[in-house]
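Please produce the structure of this protein holding 4-O-methyl-beta-D-glucopyranuronic acid.
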Amino acid sequence: MGSFGYRAWLQPAKTQLGFLPKLTGHRCFAFEEFAYGLESLFGKKPGDDGDYAISLEIDKGLPWEAYTLRGDLAGLRIAGGSEKGLLYGAYGLLARLCLGEPVETLNILEKPTVAHRVLNHWDNADGTIERGYAGKSIFFQGGRIGYDLPRLKDYARLLASIGINEISVNNVNVYPDSAKLITEEGLPDLAKVAEVFRPFGIRLIISVHFDSPVILGGLPTADPADPAVAKYWADAAKRVYQYIPDLAGFLMKADSEFRSGPAALGRTQDEGANIIARALAPFGGRIYWRCFIYNCKQDWRDTTTDRPKAAYNEFFPLDGKFDDNVILQVKHGPSDFQVREPNSPLLGAMTQTHQGLEFQITQEYTGQQKDLYATAVQWEEIFDTPVTDACMTRDLAGREVTAIVAVANTGTDANWTGHLLAQANLYAFGRMAWNPAQTAEQLTRDWVALTFGTDPAVKEPISAMLLESRWVYEKYNAPLGLGWMVNINHHYGPSPEGYEYMKWGTYHRATHTAIGVDRTTHGTEFTAQYHQYVRDLYESKKTCPEKLLLFFHRLPYTYKLKNGQTLLQYIYDTHFEGVEDVQRFITIWDSLQDKIPPEAHTSVQERLQLQLANAQEWRDVINNYFYRLTGIPDEKGRKVYG
Ligand code: GCW
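Below is the modeled complex.
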């Protein structure tokens, strides 16, 4: 696997080490990894003849995953709260060396803000990946666990180097083959995967099927109130922990998108979650219980049901009823990973329940790793958006957010993510989960420098492109928080009415005069789910952030935005601009040809061409759609077809 993209952000450094390292201190996996890193990144094997001492030591006074780096002219000390902390310290120092930071003046303390930094893979046992855009599964082949061992180890290193400490390997949509992972048939192989990740401080999570007691245990029901079902889960947990003693826990998608669950049996979500939580508790395990619940059989004629309200309605009344080892996993927005959504009202509301904030790194609705899209920019906005009066979601501790989770964007493609620049999204996720206060700009710049080197002539233009990419994609997508104007099922490319008459609850209800759903207290009352401060903000057209205007309000096309432009003209303009921006990206990228390895340069160039075609398609379909509906031409006289 010699390809450039394969090394991702662990590329051989373009800068020289100014010293010969001599390693001393606590011998452990972190020590080995640090020595390996020095050699593979700088081509320098640390030896006794070194002229600069780097020591690795445990400092019990530090939190267990924390580390300090303290350097002076005589040497540098990496101290970790545990061997785990030391491992993060080793990676942290290697990254700083690659970025060319001087060691003699290093004086930092790093500790994670969020305890559980989790990747969810949506991999199926047959090797396919639900919403995967980078090849096949790294974990499964032909109906069972199957992997390339060196690759799996390299993946573990990549994830550990950015602080990820838990991963689920199988899809939350659990099919019969992967349901068996918790049986004697599946566990021996899964235990081997756990062994690969263990030294890297990464614990496995297993996605489980709610009906396991029936489909695997032979019971007549999966009803959590049935003692036989409780016993089934207790036995399953015992079995699983015999094979994987450090398993982080289970992950469950229940009562969602045709999957079974407690509600289908007349029980509540806490009853369903707690019965499994109690089975896992003796082993220190947790259950991640997803809140992505809504009516996926809605009749489009029904205007009383509003999908974004569903998760809050289901879970908020249960606040405080979940056991301590339940983490409710909440998608960041109330809709579904759209390019623009408000934050889920659940995030501000639940104060007595552990929550996990769920992001999607894999670009299902955001360009499928053909279009450039820096997810970190979106996450930063999410963290900066208020969910109560004073607090931002960046203040996670105050709102019981104990986990940050994201759906992975990786697969067997040589560069892991298909689009080489989509590696930035995985990188930024790990680091933002570690500390959500870090900015998208800093993380993007770090990623670019670690991948392509610190030369400003490369670093500046690529960083700028990435940082702009989310807004560019949004410009040619569904406008102003409307969402969903995508082709059905695969979700790439435009189809303004693709979901309009479907059962999924995703309607914009465009007529020739107006568009959008009124979600204020005069409409579906979705805004009532928010804390008063946030509710007031969204309730009024005047204070609602303009980029979310059509998420919350139904408006005429002639509605005037703050800059005096009509809604319709805004749509036309942004869609023209989006295409021009992609053309500009192509010019920038072309100009970097002699500064980037040829294979990497070409692969991104190809993706940018795909993006251009997509942006043009979006521009023409969306603009044409609105022109046909309204009959109002573009003020600037550009071609909108139709
Ligand atoms: O956005 C939807 C996706 C489904 C996914 C679901 C979920 C795993 O289209 O593919 O299923 O979300 O998050 O459960």
